[in-house]
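Continuing the series of single-chain predictions for the mutant panel. This is the parent chain; the variants come on the following pages.
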Amino acid sequence: MDMKERVAAALKEAMKAKDTVRLSTLRLINAAIKDKDIALRGEGDETGVGNDEVLQILGKMVKQRQESARAYEEGGRFELAERELAEIRVIEDFLPRKLSESEVTAAINEAIANTGASSIRDMGKVMAALKAKYTGRMDFSQVGPKVRQLLG
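Parent structure:
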């Protein structure tokens, strides 16, 4: 079952269970997927959104909610921060398991070896290889500095 089907099935389950937080979050996910689908079709891509794009959308949604939750906490709006965190938990149900620190390091070393990277100028190739293989499974904002350190 592809990601769009999983979201649609979960949406139906949430409706039946009358789980309002899960339902609203799943509707947001569905809307983001449809927006991306429309944008791709406008560019002439008739295949639509694939699993990789869905994972990118979900990763972006998690990051947005983490930033919002942090801002709400700093502003003393804890009930809004809790809602953002609840939405993150729903979104993460659809993301693959995150890699551990050692797995991330091993993946970086493997990508460096596979791309033949030897200097900081090859960082783009390494990051592209990692994104192609590990989208949704690692935080690339934290991976970048590690790649730079290993190549530098």
